[in-house]
Design goal:
The structure is a single chain. It contains 9 helices and 8 strands. It has 226 residues and is of the alpha/beta class. It has an 8-stranded parallel β-sheet with strand order 1-8-7-6-5-4-3-2. Helix 3 packs parallel to helix 4 and helix 7 runs parallel beside helix 9. The chain binds D-xylitol-5-phosphate (DX5) and zinc ion. D-xylitol-5-phosphate binds next to strand 2, strand 8 and helix 8.
Length: 226
Amino acid sequence: MGVTPKIAPSMLSSDFANLASEAKRMLDFGADWLHMDIMDGHFVPNLTIGAPVIESLRKHTNAYLDCHLMVTNPIDYVEPMGKAGASGFTFHVEVSKENWQELIGRIKSIGMRPGVALKPGTPIEDVYPLIDSENPVGMVLVMTVEPGFGGQKFMPEMMDKVRALRKKYPSLDIEVDGGLGPSTIEMATSAGANCIVAGSSVFGAPEPAAVISLMRKSVSENQEKY
Ligand code: DX5
Ligand code: ZN
C-alpha cells in the first residue's frame, strides 16, 4: 500500500550535551526522522526536554522532528512546540479523552502533524475514534514498552494492536516505540508497522547505519504484502 518506511532514532539515547552533532550523525547514517521524547516527570517518572531544546535543535537541522509528548497536559504544549519548530506532535490518548478534537485542531492549525500514542495497557479501540474522525490524526504510535525510559525489553504481545490497526487502516502511519532493533524488527514490520523508533539499538551499535538500513529493508519487504 501507500505507506513508506520512516526510521526514527530516539534522541533520548543520544548525548544531550551534543544534540546538534548527534542529530547530524543520525541523519548521515540514513535516519528519516528524529524522535524526540518530551517527558514531564508526571505522566511518566522521568523528565527530559521541552520546547526550548526543540527550538535550539531546529536552528541546526531541517529534519522532521517526531515529537512524542509523554505529558499530562498536552494541550499546554501545542503552541510552544509549534513555535519551537516541532514537525509531528504525538499526544497520549490516556490523557486526551476529553479534548482530543480540540487538540488535533490546534496541532494542525499551527502547522504540525498530529499523532496519538497508547500505552501497553490501553486497548487499541480507544484510538479508533481519532482515526475515524472528520479531522483525524495522521499517525498512531503503539508503545511496545511502558513509556519513560530507553533500553527496555520489547513486548511482542503489542503486535496484536499493530495487526488490528493495519487490517483496518491500510494506509495509516503506524509507529512502534520501545525495544526495537535487529532482533525485534521483523515482529513489528510483519504485523504492519512502518514507522520505527529505536534508541539504544541504534546509538549502541558499532555501525548505526547498518542497523538503520536493516530496519528500513524490513519495513519495505513487509509492506509489499499489504
Ligand atoms: C520510551 C521512549 C522511547 C525510547 C525508546 O518512553 O518513548 O522513544 O527512547 O528507546 P529504546 O529504543 O532504547 O527502547
Ligand atoms: Zn518515544
